[in-house]
Write a structure and sequence with these properties.
Blueprint lengths: L2 E6 L3 H13 L4 E6 L11 E4 L2 E3 L14 E4 L9 H13 L6 E4 L4 H4 L2 E4 L2 E4 L4 H6 L7 H12 L17 H8 L2 H16 L8 H4 L1 H10 L2 H6 L8 H11 L6 H11 L3 E4 L4 H12 L4 E4 L4 E6 L6 E5 L3 E4 L1 E4 L3 H7 L13 E11 L12 E3 L14 E5 L1 H4 L5 H5 L10 E8 L3 H4 L10 H16 L7 E12 L5 H16 L3 E3 L9 H21 L15
Parallel strand pairs: 1-2, 1-14, 2-10, 4-19, 7-16, 14-20
Antiparallel strand pairs: 3-5, 6-9, 7-8, 11-12, 12-13, 15-18, 15-19, 16-17, 17-18
Helix pairs in contact: 1-13, 1-20, 2-11, 2-12, 2-20, 6-7
Bound molecules: the ligand C=Cc1c2[nH]c(c1C)Cc1[nH]c(c(CCC(=O)O)c1C)Cc1[nH]c(c(C)c1CCC(=O)O)Cc1[nH]c(c(C)c1C=C)C2.
Enzyme class: oxidoreductase
GO cellular component, one term: mitochondrial inner membrane
Cofactor: FAD
Amino acid sequence: MTTRIAVLGGGISGLSAAFYLSRLVPETTKIVLIEGSDRAGGWIRSQRVSPGTYLSTPNDNTPQNPEDVLLEVGPRSLRPVGPGGTIVLDMISQLNLQPEVMSVPKTDPSAKNRYIYYDDQINTLPSSLPSLLFKPSPPVFKSVIQSIVNEFHAPPGSADWAHDVDADESLYSFVERRFNRHVALNLVGAITHGVYAGDAKNLSVKSTFRVLCENEKVHGSVVKGMIKGGVDLQTANDKKMVRECLENPGSTEQQKTWIQDMAGQSVIGFKNGTETLTKSLRDWLVNQPNVELVTGEQVSSVELTSSNNECKVTTTKGTHFADHVISTLPANVLDKVLAKTPLMHLKETPGVDVGVVNLVYDPYTVQLPYDGFGFLTPHPDSDYKLPVPGTLGVVFDSNAMRGQDQKQNQANSVGGGEDPVKMTVMIGGHQWQKTFGGRSVGQVSPDEVLEYAQKGVQTYLGIDANPTHKMANVLSSCIPQYRVGHEARLRQLDRQTSDLYRGRLSLAGASYLGVSVPDCIKNSRELAENLVRSSIFGHSKLVTGLERIRVP
Ligand SMILES: C=Cc1c2[nH]c(c1C)Cc1[nH]c(c(CCC(=O)O)c1C)Cc1[nH]c(c(C)c1CCC(=O)O)Cc1[nH]c(c(C)c1C=C)C2
């Protein structure tokens, strides 16, 4: 009998879920991947563009000219660390994409130098605890050093991590409690901008920087934990998946050695941008006899049929019936789709809106005075006020991933081989409304966001020159916010999904268990494997995609 699985959403999570399922399921299982827009890949979008101004990413497939420059809208590099890192590397190698990969070693200045803008200047972030303690640092770091000494002796706080599985607090409150307000607003507030474009006062310490509360739970102090080598956050299944990647009998020795080499790098990227990965997944999937890729069909509803034996997926163009549905839609979008039998808490993980502006300068006119990854800005409640409020940070792309435009430039008699100066300004996030006078994303034109970014670059970096290439995109609801209590809500959602959808619906994607590309791929792989295992062994526990937060 044919089994049908519908995967909703064609971003990295949906593509990965279909990829792993397609390799694991028998030929009689048919997979349909349904994407609402006309292209697969989601937020991952890379495009080479000619000089000019673009108020969205152009769909330009014309032949390349030497002045074209590669611009990224979404993630520009991947960190190959931990189980997610190994799983991405394995996926890249299974897709034979190794020749497309570029890597940045841990010794590269962009891996070591990250900056924070405060006190009206760009300050280098200490790259490790010893460098903070023993290297000369600006006066603003003095209270940081004191707070580290105090944290070592600080008593446990109110959060009872050991006895209350649902204990949680905000990142800000945790860091203020254990370190001090200065560290919480200026350092952690900035890092929260650099990962979640979010507010450290709202985000859950447990679901965003779990390592912090685990160190308090296990070692009584974050600093003590770091000195003792930290805590192991990997589940048994993470370890199993890593082992399978490293010992895969289907991989050659060359592939295994490549994975191990790459795992030691700071970050990896692709010569033609991150979209190389999603395009390759898409191309692979369309060639599989058991996969159908449907684009341009928005899902409007998902419901169990009256027999409870299948799900009916209604889209803007028709109806699909499936024995199991994997949703990789953002939780707040899924909430609307499940209107007939609603699930709790889906609305409580909203995404933030971010203005992403790529700017490129002629390297003979503009030189960046910083050789590092980029800079971030503190939490808006910091005593250090920003001259251009709402700027979350700026990535120095031409430092962070060198050589992506080299071929173009060598052929370009004007550039003469020098990489263009490329950067990306990120604006808004949790401060979107405040930055743009209470207006929502739809009411702010990319033109205005572009102008705002240029004002920022002029103010923070003193760059007045006219960029050769400018591109602005307004990304609506792009990074899910794991607010305080996220994990406890997931636990309830897990139970309710099992109860109401009886193993016919599972959840994956950035709304639940990690926002990074490696996390999304890892969670989709785990879900695909759990589904196949449960269909073979008929596990009594129904698969929902949220297994990892179940309390044993
Ligand atoms: C200024 C805004 C942003 C910058 N990057 C992102 C935003 C919103 C998005 C983002 N950055 C990271 C992730 C997680 C993915 C991952 O692979 O881990 C996401 C969704 C990674 C990241 N970037 C920074 C840090 C500290 C991290 C965590 C992991 C790591 O250490 O690499 C720092 C950082 N991000 C931005 C800048 C300018 C910056 C530092 C100077 C841009």
